[in-house]
Amino acid sequence: MIKVSFFYPYRENAPFDIDYYCTSHMPWVAGLLGSALKGWTADAGLAGGAPGSTPTYIAAGHLLFDSVDAFTAAVSPHAKAFSADIVNYYPDGVAPVVQISDVRAAS
């Protein structure tokens, strides 16, 4: 199984609408990806590693797929629409950092 993570960098005074992200964007994405998507989560950044520090990422979204090929096939037809929706939850237009990981352990 692979996990595709979208990390949204924290920017001072840059608004991120986590409610829209969790209740509109991610469910919409999940609906379009259909059965290829095995699960998803969304996280809101609270703090960095040091007490009182700001988070490195204001939010993150994670999508689970059986393989990179399954991810590519499911996302490719919708990639432009997904990217175009970013301004609805992160209007400063900061692009996410994307990482694809091989899930080695889970509980």
Automatic annotation (TrEMBL):
Molecular function in Gene Ontology: oxidoreductase activity
Family annotation (Pfam families): EthD
EthD domain: residues covered: 19-89
Family matches, as InterPro entries: Dimeric_a/b-barrel, EthD_dom
PANTHER family named in the record: BLR8190 PROTEIN (PTHR40260)
NCBIfam families linked: EthD family reductase (TIGR02118)
Name of the protein in its database record: EthD domain-containing protein
Organism: Caballeronia sordidicola (Burkholderia sordidicola)
